[in-house]
Amino acid sequence: MKAQTFLPDDYRPAEDEPFMNERQLEYFRRKLIAWKHELLELSAETLEGLQESARNVPDLADRASEETDRALELRTRDRQRKLVSKIDSALRRIETGEYGYCEMSGEPISLKRLDARPIATMTLEAQEKHERRERVHRDD
Hints:
It is found in: Cytoplasm. 64% of the residues lie in helices and 0% in strands. It is an all-alpha fold. The chain has two domains: 18-99, Four Helix Bundle (Hemerythrin (Met), subunit A), CATH 1.20.120.910; 102-140, no CATH class. The model has no long low-confidence stretch (mean pLDDT 88).
């Protein structure tokens, strides 16, 4: 087990330090773990809410409204589950030394992009190119 990297509370990754040094990796690791815990807590609350709302509602309008709410909750929960999976993948990339580098070009992903979207796997340019290609193929 490697030693814990010291990280001041006010630390923010900066462009003038070596890219993906130990402090930056620790910063993103902590950010990802905190985000994952937040999502798992929300997921547990959603489950509790769904179990409580699973009661028999005699009024048809109320039942329809409750079913709509339930479907929305389940969709949200599915999105959160996929996000947790992406967070786990980002944490694995930190462990393997691949974090912060574009999976298409191998170029470093900007610190601003990673700070805003720590699960990013592509540079902004590669992501835009990927989305343009996807749109073209979707229209076929």
